[in-house]
Amino acid sequence: MNPIKVLEWKGMYPIKKILLVMIWLFGCFLCVAGIIIFISDNDVKNLLVGILFGIGGVVFFSPIKKYVLTTYHCVPGLNSKLQKVELEKLLEGEVFEKISKKDSNITNCDIKLSEHWICAKGKLIAKNLLIIGYPRVTSSLIGRATTPMVFIYMTGDIVCLLYTSPSPRD
């Protein structure tokens, strides 16, 4: 199976899309139901509920549409530039291997490498289009277990991933 589809299902993006659409449709149903009940019973509370859900449906339509129509969420930066078929073709035959402790001084990380791709935190980064990738140093005591990893593409896109290091007890 294609690794991009496996990562999509591991991130549960198809299920998230279905749930978002169902919640939005339920809000639209409540809007229409509130207006219909107002017309039949002249109850102002139902009209206000209908108008409130109608406004919510209009406001959230564009972000939900953008999220649902995004092809592959696990390929940030390239999912808006390349079509679905092109991304799948680029990932054909790629074999991802974890970074061994002998190769680097990174321990307990979830980074896998292939010939042309980096898989970090379930996101795919193209090596060939990458200018630089670096961990951003943070001095916060609150989020000290998280390290933002920043990747800059030749296209000018910047992808920032929050890497949470596992606790020593795990």
Q: How would you portray this structure in words?
A:
- With 170 residues, the chain is α+β, with helices and mostly antiparallel strands.
- The chain has helices at residues 3-10, 13-41, 44-69, 84-90, and strands at 97-98, 111-113, 117-120, 123-126, 130-135, 146-153, 158-164.
- The strands form 2 sheets. Strands 1-2-3-4 form a 4-stranded antiparallel beta sheet, with no helix packed on it.
- A hairpin with a 4-residue loop joins strand 6 and strand 7.
- The longest helix has 29 residues, at 13-41.
- The two termini are 30 Å apart.
Quick synopsis:
The chain has 170 residues and is an alpha+beta fold. Helices cover 41% and strands 20% of the residues. It has 4 helices and 7 strands.
Number of strands: 7
Strand order of the largest sheet: 1-2-3-4
Overall shape? elongated
Average pLDDT number: 84
- SSE pattern, N- to C-terminal: HHHHEEEEEEE
Cα distance spanning the termini: 30 Å
Unreliable residue runs = none
What fraction of the residues are assigned to beta strands by DSSP? Answer: 15-25%
Total of DSSP H or I helical runs spanning 4+ residues = 4
Chain oligomer state: single chain
- Percent of residues in helices comes to 40-55%
Q: How would a textbook summarize the main sheet?
A: 4 strands, antiparallel
